[in-house]
Design a protein that fits this description.
Number of domains: 2
Structural class: alpha/beta
Strand content: 5-15%
Distance between the termini: 23 Å
Order of helices and strands: EHEHEEHEEEHEHHHHHHHHH
Oligomer: single chain
Shape: elongated
Pfam families: 2-thiour_desulf, DUF1722
Helix content: 40-55%
Bound molecules: iron/sulfur cluster
Largest sheet: 4 strands, parallel
InterPro entries: 2-thiour_desulf, DUF1722
Length: about 300
């Protein structure tokens, strides 16, 4: 499959760059050693870009008596809000240099974290950079790197980022409503493992595409497509999808090999075979038997296989 290269923002300290307040970093090997080979990473550090240097005074989020949110130094109590706003603007500008599909953020940072405790501990809000990114590009896939230590969460992030890149590739050139219908058909099985209702609603939008102005249609499809893929999957839904795809092999495949495919899917159901192996088996058979509809399903190859969970 010809994959568009996703562009992913990342908190600089996660790449091993010593830009943290303590002059250290929080390198995440998975990002540097695995993900970096498959996407374009764009490193940003709003606090460093604010000119605060490293090491620097650590900061926290605090409410004013009127309810406003400020960034204050832990030791001096100094108000760093204006400086950090400049650092955020500079980081966003860097991300705007190209299309953006995802962003990996450092947890608990008052700048980058997705849910940061405000001084006093009664509420958690996005850090100032995370909030600005969400306001500017709500469909960009965001995750805290800590959460991606869970293989299932890591896979879900990668699948969504690559799906967004495919959709962006469609909408970045001239496209027709027919092209969108073809895209939707290729994403069918991937959408279904995230829940039938969202797939059905999206299908309705494609069916009514002629009533929409093209730009609004692209925006609405993107919003609903990314929301659909944010839904949880289950092993049972994956088994259903695999069996559905295997059903297309029925005619052309001899009974013995058909039974082997069924057995491989059962092995996956019972945790004895990783899903990437079942996907590879179905891909190979679809190639051999020239089953174009099956081979075109993004579900069989949603992202580089090394980024899929082994579960
Ligand atoms: S501002 Fe973000 S990128 Fe910079 S050190 Fe803090 S968490 Fe890392």
């Amino acid at each position: 499959m010809n994959r568009p290269l996703p562009r992913v923002g990342v908190s600089r300290c996660l790449l091993g760059e010593a830009v943290r307040y303590d002059g250290d970093h929080r390198r995440q090997d998975w990002i540097v050693s695995h993900l970096a080979a498959h996407v374009e990473l764009v490193a940003v550090c709003p606090e460093f870009s604010a000119g605060l240097g490293a090491p620097r005074e650590p900061v926290h989020l605090a409410r004013t008596p009127a309810g406003g949110l400020r960034v204050r130094g832990n030791d001096s109590g100094r108000d760093f809000t204006a400086a950090l706003e400049r650092g955020v603007a500079c980081s966003l500008e860097r991300l705007r240099q190209g299309p953006l599909d995802g962003c990996l953020l450092k947890a608990r940072s008052p700048s980058c974290g997705l849910a940061v405790e405000v001084m006093g501990g009664r509420e958690a809000v996005p850090g100032v950079f995370a909030a600005a990114l969400k306001a500017e590009a709500p469909e960009v896939v965001r995750a805290e790197a800590d959460a991606l230590e869970d293989p299932a969460a890591r896979e879900a992030f990668c699948i969504r980022v690559f799906a967004r890149a495919r959709l962006r590739a469609l909408f970045s050139g001239p496209w027709t409503r027919g092209d969108l219908a073809a895209f939707h058909a290729r994403e069918k099985m991937l959408l279904l493992v995230h829940g039938r209702p969202a797939y059905t609603r999206l299908g309705r939008l494609v069916a009514e595409a002629g009533r929409w102005p093209q730009k609004a249609l692209a925006g609405e499809y993107t919003r609903r497509f990314m929301a659909a893929l944010a839904g949880p999957t289950t092993r049972g839904r994956h088994v259903d999808a695999l069996q559905h795809l295997a059903g297309h092999l029925r005619g052309p495949l001899d009974p013995l090999r058909r039974a082997q495919v069924r057995e491989t899917i059962e092995d996956y159901r019972h945790g004895r075979c990783p899903r990437p192996r079942v996907l590879a088996c179905l891909r190979a058979l679809a190639d051999e038997l020239e089953l174009a509809w099956v081979r075109r399903q993004s579900y069989l190859d949603p992202c580089p296989p090394s980024l899929l969970s082994r579960g």
